[in-house]
Amino acid sequence: MKRITILCVVLLCFYLSSNITYAQDSLQTDAREKKRLLLNQFESDMVLTASERVALKQSRLAHQHKTKSILDTLDISEARRNRLLQELKRNPFSEKIKEVIANHTKSKDTIEQ
User: Fold this and answer.
1) Residue closest to 75 by CA, chosen among 50, 39, 100, 47
2) Cα(74)–Cα(96) distance, rounded to whole angstroms?
3) pLDDT tens figures, 15-38
4) Count of the separate structural domains present in the chain
5) I want to staple 48 with a disulfide (CB 3.0 to 4.6 A). Which of 52, 67, 77, 97 is the partner?
């Protein structure tokens, strides 16, 4: 009698745990099907296409590369250059970098004098 009771309890636990794991698997498949942007559901005209996003990324990288080459040509200390390059990585359109470039580049008027 003891063996039958233990066997029934084990089988009941196995049956209940199999239902729980099946429920977890079925919910995950539903979540995988809904891979859409949240903004796309409500404001689809504001979402950029993939080609537009790639073009924006390429222009940002070109701007970063151009700014890096300008920073490399400036006559500033190496430590300051490294800090500005780190700032460039964090924020390519930083006001700090723009100010340093504006202060250290010579305009055409000062070159002619």
Assistant:
1) 100
2) 14
3) 777 665 555 555 555 445 555 667
4) 1
5) 52
